[in-house]
């Protein structure tokens, strides 16, 4: 990523990418994060993406829309996405402002996010292996 490593980290964990947002991002940083993450999905042939937002105490409408866009782009590139760590106050504000993540899977924390991806991705990987796909 081209930005300060303290803002966002993207790590590879087997067939998954784990992206942690460490602090609030402005719109241009959010767009850069989106671009970098979607690029890495293809580069690493990732089957799943976890976006950890536990460090955020606010998520504006642009950030919420960008997370939905990332999930859709990842799906089009063949990867499942799950957002984890949404704080209670952030969830309440998102619902009250109509900024839900209906199109995006969510989980309580990283452990549940990994379990979700294991359940969602493992059956598809088995079918791909039978068909001879990587």
Automatic annotation (TrEMBL):
Gene3D superfamilies: STAS domain
SUPFAM superfamilies hit by this protein: SpoIIaa-like
Residue intervals of the STAS domain: 6-124
Pfam families per record: STAS
Name of the protein this chain belongs to: Anti-sigma factor antagonist
The species this protein was found in: Cellulomonas aerilata
């Amino acid at each position: 990523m081209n930005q300060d490593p303290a803002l966002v980290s993207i790590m590879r964990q087997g067939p998954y990418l784990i992206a942690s947002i460490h602090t609030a991002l402005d719109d241009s940083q959010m767009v850069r994060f989106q671009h970098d993450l979607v690029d890495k999905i293809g580069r690493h042939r990732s089957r799943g993406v976890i976006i950890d937002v536990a460090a955020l105490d606010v998520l504006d409408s642009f950030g919420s829309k960008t997370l939905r866009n990332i999930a859709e782009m990842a799906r089009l590139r063949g990867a499942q996405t799950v957002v984890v760590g949404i704080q209670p106050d952030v969830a309440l504000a998102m619902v009250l402002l109509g900024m839900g993540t209906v199109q995006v899977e969510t989980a309580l924390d990283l452990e549940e996010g990994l379990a979700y991806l294991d359940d969602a991705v493992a059956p598809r990987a088995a079918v791909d292996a039978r068909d001879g796909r990587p």
